[in-house]
Structures are given as C-alpha cells and as structure tokens.
Amino acid sequence: MKRLRATLDRIDRKGYGAYKDLQGSYDFDEFSLTIDKVQRDPFAPPSLIRIRTKDNRFDPALFGNPARRMAFEDFLTRCVDRAVRRVVRGNRGSGGSGQVEIQRPTQVVLPRTSMVAEDDHIEARMAVGLPARGRTVDARAAKTVLLDELPKVVGAALVPVGVDEEAARWHIETVEDAEHLRGMLSELGLVAFVADGAILPRESGASDRPLRDGAVPFESPEELRVSVDLPNQGRVTGMGIPEGVTLIAGGGFHGKSTLLEALSWGVYDHLPGDGRELVVAREDAVKIRAEDGRSVAGVDISGSIGELPGGKSTENFSTPNASGSTSQAANIAEALEIGTSLLLVDEDTSATNFMIRDERMRELVKMEPISPFIDLVRPLHRASGVSTIVVVGGVGDYLDVADRVILMENYEPHDATERAREVRERFPTPATSEKEMPPPRKRRVRASSIDLRRGKRETARGRGLHTIELGRERVDLAYVEQLAESGQTEAIARIIGEFAGSRGDGEVKRIATAALASISKNGLDSLGNFRGHPGEMSLPRPQEIAAAINRIRSLKASATG
Ligand code: ADP
Ligand code: MG
Q1: Domains, the chain, ranges and CATH?
Q2: CA 454, CA 264: separation in Å to the nearest integer?
Q3: d(Cα 425, Cα 155) in Å, to the nearest integer?
Q4: Run of H or E including 239
Q5: Which of 46, 226, 249, 527 is deepest in the core (most CB within 10 A)?
Q6: How confident is the model at residue 159 (pLDDT cuts 50, 70, 90)?
C-alpha cells in the first residue's frame, strides 16, 4: 500500500504511459491488489485488476458443492456491482477516469470469470479507469480510487461483515432448487415445469426484469398440476408439460409468447425475485425461429425440404441468404445435430409456409418442396424422442397433431385437450401427411475456412451480446434467442478462435463438447490467451456455441460417412 502510494506520487502529472509502472501486486490490510494490465490512454478499455482477500471467512456451506459455489460467486459479483455503484464516484477526469467495473450480471445465474471463491480466499476480477487530467497521470484521484474506494468495495462485498449472508443463502438455495428441478424433468417424463405463483411477463421488450404492475401470477390448470419435492423449498406445485407435442393456443395478447419465452429461458437458473426461479425446461431446449438472410453451410435439411429449384440439393444445403422457411429448416437440423430434446416454436416468429400448408395450396401449388412442420412434429417425437412446444393463434390444423393443448385466456392457462378433441371431430381436416424425419446427415466444418486475420493481428472476440468478430467477419447472433449475456458471446468467440487456430476440421458437436469438457476441467479462465486476468466471460451452452459456428459466413463444411 505504501509502495503503491509512493509510485503514484512519483508519476503524478507525468504522461499517461507512466501508469505502466503500477503493474504488480500490492498488499493491503485485508486483501491484495494486483494490477495486471494498464490501459494505454484514458480513452482505451480500462485497466484490469484483481482483488484477492486473505482468507475466506464465509460459512463454508455457501460454497460446499459445485452448484453452490457457482451461485455464491454469482451472488458476490452482484454484491461488488452494487457496492461499486454505492461507493465509487466514477468520472474523475478524462475518458473512463475513475470508473470501476465488474462483469455486469443479468437475470440469469451463470459460471463467470468475474469471481472465484476458493476455500482460503476470494478473488474478484475487475476493471478500473486510471484517472487522468487530460492525458497525464492524476495521482490524487488515483489514490482516492485505489486506496479509498476499492477497500470500501471490498469491505461491503467480499468479507462477511459487509455481506448479507441470509440473502446469500437464499440466492444459493434458489439456484440449487432450480438445478434439482431441471434434473428431475426427465425422470418425471416432463420437458418443462412452471411453478404456481411464477411471474412470467417482463418489464418491457427491452428489459428482462419482472413486470411489476399488474402481473398475473401463474396458476397451473388442475389437469397438468404436479408436485415436486425440492431440497430447500420442500414441496412445490406447478404445471408440468409432458413429453410429446404440446400446443399453446389462445387469442392474441393473452400471454402465449410470454409463456414460451419463459420456457426458453428455463434452460438457465434465475436469481431470487426474478419471478422465473422455478420455471425450468430441459437444459438442451432450443427455441427455433425463421431467420431469413442467414448463411447456411452444408446442412442436411432434406428432412423438411425436398429438391429445390434448379435441382439444388437439400442434403448438403449451403446458401449465403436463406429464406424464411429454409432458415427455419436449417435451425432445426442444426439443433438436432448438436442435440436437443425439446424444440420451442412460436408462430409469431415462424415462416408461415414452414408451419403449414392448407388444402387449397396443396391443390394449387404442386411443386412445393417444403414439408410443413406440422407433418414432422409427431415423427420427430416418435423416431428421435424430440418433443415440441408450439405456440399457435391462427393455425387450427395443429390441433390434429397435439398430444396436449394449453389454452391461454387472460394470462391463465387451461387444459383444453378435451375441448380440442371435440373441435377436431366437429371440424375435421384432411389427414396430415406425416413424414419420417431421419436425423440430419453428419458433416464436418473446416477450421481453415475461418480466417482470423485482421491487418497484422488475429482477432476472435465478442462485441456485445449479439456479435462475434472473427478477423474481418462479423458473425450476427441477433436471432440466437437463448444467448443470455455478452460474457457468453466472448467465451464462444474464444472457443471459435481456438478451433480456427487448430487448422483441423470436426463435427460442430464435437467442437462444442470438447471445448466445454476442457472448460469444466480447467475452468473458464483457460479460454484463450490473455494478459493478466481473463476478462469477462460466462459459460455458454453447446447449443449457442454451435449456433455461432453455424452462422459464420465463410464457413465450409463437408459430409462425413
Ligand atoms: P400473445 O403471444 O398471446 O399474443 P404475449 O405473450 O405477447 O401474448 O403477451 C401480451 C402482453 O401481455 C405482453 O405485453 C405481456 O407482457 C403481457 N402479459 C403476458 N403475461 C402476463 C401476465 N401473466 N400478467 C400480466 N401481463 C402479462
Ligand atoms: Mg405472441
């Protein structure tokens, strides 16, 4: 601490580059501060620091198993984030002077690189904008940030006296219950569960927080209600959605999409107060949508689309510009390729001609290569064990293929399976022409088709939530709907970077699972070469890793076996 003060006094008012002298570790009373990487100027990305406490005096039960440890680390990241907002004034000069940051957590709880809780210490990885006056060192402001504000943050967020242990326990137990519940789904023959009392609607289209005013809590229809025993909360009841084909029907604006959305986020754990703490789906569930304009590389979409005009093959389908229906077909084939047991489909975001074709069109248009999804959902379940939950407002034909119908009325779900049967008998439709849907043919993607060069450097990095920069290419992930936070995007970018560097080729599934196996062994920290600390990463699912690889425009693939 004395040494830090002395160095700051020495470099005061010098050119900003003098801050480089700060690199190193410093001993404080309760913790050590390591300045890993010093920014080039006040406007550059902030400097990277680590704070490590000298012991870990929290109740060991808070981090006694891997799920708890992960949740505890998530909790501490949120504590630091809150403490920073309270304690740090920020804005102490030009550029990012005086700003202190930790990875910004979202409504989901994920393994992240921002925090490590070990048995004998806690380490927070953060970023600090070292203060400048113009482009010179402002030592006085730097002292305030590093010697006054940072210790206050530590006192409020990383040691037991500052932290509300009851809240921590609640956080951890909530996550543990959700994981347990998700783990039970298979055994119960369910693909998803929505607890009674859950709050599904969000604050707005732009916010993932719960709707505050007028949210109608979820209440399961009697017919679908199941009760489960959770390790912390004990007995909980809610709606269980069984395997098979489930329809969510209802009038416009009655909460159909909101329910499906909540299910699609059910692959992740949520923090207490989110409203969706006990809304879970199979961990490999994939939301499928149309995405016209995306590129596709050698994907077998022949299961849903026959021969295209000009004799274009659909067993090895490539295009720089997919249509609504071919993109949706590719999204499904790729989901099956990486592995999924549950598809979530919303009419709102689907291509109409992919969903359905009515009798008149079947008569008029003879040369239709598309087998509508309605002909595939049942075979998909029968042959591959893949369940589907589909939201429909307009297309009644889906009643024919549904095992179960959930009718949304004023945000209240009803079991309308019986009613649907009656309707079906009164208004019969021609039998659907079910079609077998074999799993897509295997393919290998080529690492050499990914070019990381950008000028003299090689880049593979995340740019916010929805973009990955690979060399000169920007991979667009705007329609990858289950990407939860930018830390996942960053991690995926580094995984792709490593694959591109390997110069080999491989199946997308193998690339993703190998990367995740290595992460589970060596930690997220092991991803990529970084100076100092690994920055801001969160754990992605294999499904999103695959989705990103599959959207690389330069990607080339070849068939195997
Ligand atoms: P649909 O897909 O049936 O047309 P949405 O799911 O888009 O309907 O919901 C319509 C509106 O109702 C949205 O603004 C949503 O936030 C709101 N909403 C959905 N569920 C609830 C609920 N349980 N309580 C209050 N508002 C809700
Ligand atoms: Mg809708």
Answers
A1: 2-163 (no CATH), 187-441 (3.40.50), 443-559 (no CATH)
A2: 36
A3: 68
A4: strand 234-242
A5: 249
A6: very high
Quote the ligand 2 centre to 484 CA distance (angstroms). 21
Distance between CA atoms of 480 and 551, rounded to whole angstroms?
A: 10
User: What pLDDT is attached to residue 153?
Assistant: 98
Summarize pLDDT for 347-363 with one digit per residue, the tens.
Answer: 999 998 889 877 777 77
3-state SS of the chain: helix, strand, coil percent to 5? 35, 25, 40
Q: Nearest C-alpha to atom 20 of ligand 1 is from which residue?
A: 255
Give residue 503's pLDDT: 80
Ligand 1, atom 25: closest residue by C-alpha: 215
Q: Is 183 exposed, middle or buried, given 0-12, 13-18 or 19+ CB atoms closer than 10 A?
A: exposed
Neighbours of ion ligand 2 (CB under 5 A): 257, 348
Number of neighbours of residue 154 by Cβ within 10 angstroms: 24
Nearest CA owner, ligand 1 atom 4: 253
More confident site: 38 or 503: 38
CB 33 within 8 A of CB 49: yes
Best residue for ligand 1 mutational test, from 258, 259, 408 (most atoms within 8 Å of Cβ): 258
